[in-house]
Specification:
single chain; 78 residues; alpha+beta; two-stranded antiparallel ribbon; 42% helix
């Protein structure tokens, strides 16, 4: 498990705890210099589309990822 925040100086209680799958998907999205498509995300992580879909939904709900023109952009702080 890993804690991720949406801002540099956030309270640890406001951070989101990510599983290894969630963390790997978040890393791929956040490391991409431009928004990434669902297909590219699925290929980059080698995970089933249902898992990627579920994880992206959770990351979006928590404000770590947002959808821009049908692609995903990271809002993650390291």
């Amino acid at each position: 498990m890993r804690l991720v925040c949406t801002s540099e100086n956030c309270d640890p209680n406001e951070c989101v705890e990510l599983t290894s799958r969630e963390s790997s998907i978040c890393d791929v999205i956040c490391d991409s210099p431009e928004p990434i498509s669902f297909t590219r995300l699925k290929e980059s992580t080698n995970l089933h589309q249902e898992i990627v879909s579920r994880v992206v939904r959770r990351l979006t709900i928590h404000g770590l990822v947002r959808k821009v023109d049908g692609k995903y952009k990271g809002e993650c702080s390291r």
